Amino acid sequence: MPPYEKSMEMMPFKQRKCLATRKDEVCTIRSKFPNKLPVIVERYLREKKLPLLDKTKFLVPHELTLGQFLSLIRSKMALEASQALYLLISGKNVSCLSASMGEVYSQFRTLMASST
């Protein structure tokens, strides 16, 4: 992969795509898959030890809990039991692991859409 593509890949998703583009993508995805939620997962910029995921975009069902999603991400990263993994919403919020992805989306959707 050329250096330019690699550096673009390391940029946060919100810097790679403008707000209007992200909103358009969400509308398209939500119309094609009304029972799924688009989720972006990125490693914290200062994190050095956790492996990178092979993809950042996920489509998850509304009823999937945050705990189940965390388990899915852990398995994709092949983390050991001793390694900690935290999910932050918009880089600073933490939600209850028993909350469904639909509940989390409803609670934080305006914050997620507008923050840059």
Structure overview:
- The structure is a single chain.
- This protein has 116 residues and is mainly alpha-helical.
- The chain has a single domain (4-113), classed as Phosphatidylinositol 3-kinase Catalytic Subunit, Chain A, domain 1 (Ubiquitin-like (UB roll), Roll).
- 45% of the residues lie in helices and 9% in strands.
- The protein has a two-stranded antiparallel ribbon with strand order 1-2.
- The longest helix is centred in the first third of the chain and has 14 residues, at 19-32.
- It is globular.
- Residues 1-6 have low confidence and may be disordered.
Secondary structure elements and pairings:
Blueprint: H1 3-10, H2 13-16, H3 19-32, E1 36-40, E2 57-61, H4 66-77, H5 101-114
Antiparallel strand pairs: 1-2
